Amino acid sequence: TTLTAQVTAWIIDHAPPFLLAVVLLIIGLKVIRQIRRSAEKAMLRAQINEDIVPFLAALVGIGLQILLFLSVAGIVGIDTASFVAVLAAAGFAVGLALQGSLSNFAAGIIILLFRPYRVGQWVEVAEKFGKVSKIQVFNTIMITPGNKTLIIPNGQIIDNIVTNFSAQGSVRLELQISMPYKEDFPKVESIIMNVMREMPAVLPEPAPSVGIETFDSHSIVLAMRPYVDPEDYWPVTYELNQRVKAAFSQYGIQVAYSEGIELGEIGQ
Q1: Over the chain, what is the mean pLDDT?
Q2: Does 145 sit behind a cis peptide bond, omega within 30 degrees of 0 on the bond before it?
Q3: Are the beta carbons of 132 and 119 closer than 8 angstroms?
Q4: What pLDDT is attached to residue 84?
Q5: Which residue in 121, 114, 97, 94 sits closest to 154, CA to CA?
Q6: In the Cβ-directed half-sphere of 172, how many Cα atoms lie within 13 Å?
Q7: In terms of Cα–Cα distance, which of 135, 133, 122 is closest to 169?
Q8: What DSSP assignment string belongs to 75-92?
Q9: CA–CA dist 104, 95 (Å, integer)
Q10: Could you give the C-alpha distances from 184 to 117, 181, 187, 212, in angstroms and in order?
């Protein structure tokens, strides 16, 4: 009959593309799963942050699935141009609505991939100093020496200079102390160097140093430059100043007061 002939013709025309689409869909999904697992392993071998590896792998999987579904739709005769247009419009609208968040997201990906700093390191970024606690996709969490929690958007970090105090394994303190013109610099230098050498937290290498930094109206400004572990930055700063003051008192080193040029004693 005519109906049977029409059904037969329709099956002959549409069955092969439909079967091909089903086979492609089944095989494609399996291949995508394998690619996703391989991508996860490759990113872990590349030491990419473990927190972001599943997310990046999911993005790879979603992108490949979209391409697969569009290919399958094209095989069975569905016009994919409208789908592509809808996806593009939706992506554009979402991009406008989340412009700031997407900027922080992109910056977070860059930070996690290129690692200008890592969790546990001391850094100064956006004029804020602290220890990196967490590196998230949108923000970096830092703990200040005063135990304050800083939540810094990653977009601000990418747009600013990042100073990593932990990257080289040690950090140099840059401290100043005054010495009157009357005092003998080699004597004062020896006193300060002995103080720094006797402090366990001061690293022997690179070696600490003392030098004349500048001259002011009442005294000579000396620079003390010891190297310490980043964790000891503030403790050594306080202890070194305390020990130098005590050493000056012990050896009778005088200081110049701003009220006139008279020399005064230093107490303990």
Answers
A1: 81
A2: no
A3: yes
A4: 67
A5: 114
A6: 11
A7: 122
A8: HTT---HHHHHHHHHHHH
A9: 12
A10: 44, 8, 5, 12
DSSP string, 233-252: HHHHHHHHHHHHHHHHHHTT
Query: Among candidates 188, 180, 186, which has minimal Cα distance to 250?
Result: 188
b vs e for 82-99, b when ≥16 Cβ sit within 10 Å of the residue's Cβ?
eeeeeeeeeeeeeeeeee
pTM greater than 0.90 (yes/no): no
Q: Which two tokens stand for residue 136?
A: 């998230």
pLDDT digits (tens, 9 = 90+) for 79-138: 666 666 666 766 666 555 445 567 777 888 788 777 888 888 888 887 888 899 888 878
Report the distance separating Cα 216 and Cα 142, nearest Å: 38
DSSP state, residue 165: S
147: left (phi over 0), alpha (psi -120 to 50) or beta: left
* pLDDT on residue 268: 44
In angstroms, rounded to a whole number, what is the distance separating the alpha carbons of residues 19 and 6? 19
